[in-house]
Amino acid sequence: MRDTEVLRRFNRTYTQRIGVLDDSFLGLGVPLGAARLVFELGEAGASVRELRTRLGLDSGHATRLLQRLEGDGLVVVEADPDDRRVRRVSLTERGRALGESLEQRSEDRAESLLAPLTARQRGRLAEALATADLLVRAATVSLSTVDPGSADAQSAVTSYFDELAVRFPAGFDPGPPAYDDLGAAQRGTFVVATSDGVPVACGGVRDLGGTVGEIKRMWVHAGWRGAGLGSRLLRHLEGQARDLGYAQIRLDTNETLVEAMAMYERAGYRRIERYNDNPYAEAFYEKELTSG
Questions:
Q1: Is 88 exposed, middle or buried, given 0-12, 13-18 or 19+ CB atoms closer than 10 A?
Q2: Cβ(62)–Cβ(48) under 8 Å?
Q3: Which candidate, 214, 238, 220, 224, places its Cα nearest to that of 289?
Q4: Distance in angstroms (rounded) separating the CA atoms of residues 73 and 267
Q5: Phi/psi of residue 81, nearest 5 degrees
């Protein structure tokens, strides 16, 4: 059976079993789309833009769902007091009660699906679904070129620096913020990978002079490793480097980051002599960029 056939069969089976096809999801009087908005809002609420980004909804569909929920007295949509251009959505008392029922009935439905299985079968299913969830989310991650000083870029780089501080034996001090050296004016670029609107990976390219570029600040969230996102991001950055006119690409890393070193070597990078004065770098790599 082809991979696509397996995925489509699973989609048909699972959507039927969990009630996606019902007009009243889990008997709560609202379809799945509206119920999912209630779930996403939780106690904190969210802006309309956040909801659209998180769930991948177009403006018209999001508006229709929110109008239905607002008409049913489940949500309130109003201008953000700190920025009148932003519309925020929050649950009413009825909406919170619906959210609690949604949580309980979802848990009950999941338990009923698992009940006929043995403990071993439940474990196998949980492991398989965790892998499937990670791989599907990795396949649908969005890679976007952003301003290195943007909120998403700085959030990703901060997470990267925080991880290095934990993993390096002597800690890590990034020094003062330095985003400009990855700016377009220096024949550079910065890419952030997002899932449901949250940065989960990043990396940039900067100029080393002539036809040589350098990949910097490449990071993948620990929870996403093993899904191929790092390799996909690396290929994307190499493509960006080619588009910027580079014929060779270099990078450095610390030997503590054994996963990164293995990935670079699988991707065709070769070890070279030190080419910079980065005090945290212990391994140096280079790769010739082909025209394709």
A1: buried
A2: yes
A3: 238
A4: 54
A5: -60, -25
Q: Are 272 and 288 in contact (CB under 8 A)?
A: no
Residue 33: both structure tokens together: 């789309």
Q: What is the pLDDT along the chain (292 residues), one digit of tens a residue?
A: 788 888 888 888 877 877 777 778 888 888 888 889 999 888 888 888 888 888 888 889 889 999 999 999 999 999 888 888 889 999 999 999 999 999 999 999 899 989 999 999 999 999 999 888 888 888 889 899 999 889 999 999 999 999 999 999 888 888 765 555 565 456 899 999 998 888 999 999 999 999 999 999 999 999 888 888 999 999 999 999 999 999 999 999 999 999 999 999 999 999 999 999 999 999 999 999 986 5
All structural domains of the chain with their residue ranges: 3-116, 142-288
Q: Is the pTM of this model over 0.70?
A: yes
CATH class of 142-288: alpha beta
3-state secondary structure of 285: strand
Its CATH architecture, for the domain 3-116, is Orthogonal Bundle (1.10)
The two three-digit tokens of residue 217, written as one number:
């600040």
Distance CA 41, CA 51 (A): 8
Which residue in this structure is represented by tokens 């998180």?
A: 54
Q: What are the DSSP E strand ranges found in the chain? A: 46-47, 75-80, 83-91, 142-145, 189-195, 198-209, 212-220, 248-253, 270-271, 283-288
Residue labelled with tokens 């508006």: 63
Q: Do the Cβ atoms of 33 and 75 come closer than 8 Å?
A: no
Sequence-ordered list of residues with C-beta below 8 angstroms from that of 186, at least 6 positions apart, any chain: 180, 206, 207
The whole-angstrom distance between residue 116's C-alpha and the CA centroid of its chain comes to 34
Q: What is the pairing mode between strands 75-80 and 283-288?
A: unpaired
Q: Look up residue 246 and give its two tokens.
A: 């580079």
